[in-house]
User: What shape does this take?
Amino acid sequence: MKCPYCGYKESKVVDSRPADEGNSIRRRRECLSCEKRFTTYETMESLPMVVIKRDGSRQSFDRNKVVSSMLRACEKRTVPLARLEELASEIEQNLQNSLEREITTDLIGQQVMDRLREVDEVAYVRFASVYRRFKDIPTFMDELSKLLEEK
Assistant: This one.
């Protein structure tokens, strides 16, 4: 690590600790030449993911879209935003761990539905109605009856 004060290329680590809720490591370093201290942060590099939409177009994965779709489904419900952020992080981490670089919207939607079902059933039904594109009342009722059978 290059010293920001003198430019010397070697330093020693004086202290390391987790930062950003465990998503990075904060390292306190000391330059071996000028002996001044500075802080660096080490984070995991995430690979870019491409989402394949229903029409075949591709765009980069946007975690904010996952959060906003869940937020819409949870409108006027008692689900805290922090919980939706946690769910979005779980989904993103799960997709990153799959090592697939191209992900379909179907896979993302299914993961959102699975998590919403555990958090709030009304939000789940709202999301499912848009995601699965219910065209009439019987298909909507089928989904509701499946949900009731699971209880």
Notes: Strands lie at 11-19, 24-31, 37-43, 50-52, 58-60, 102-104.
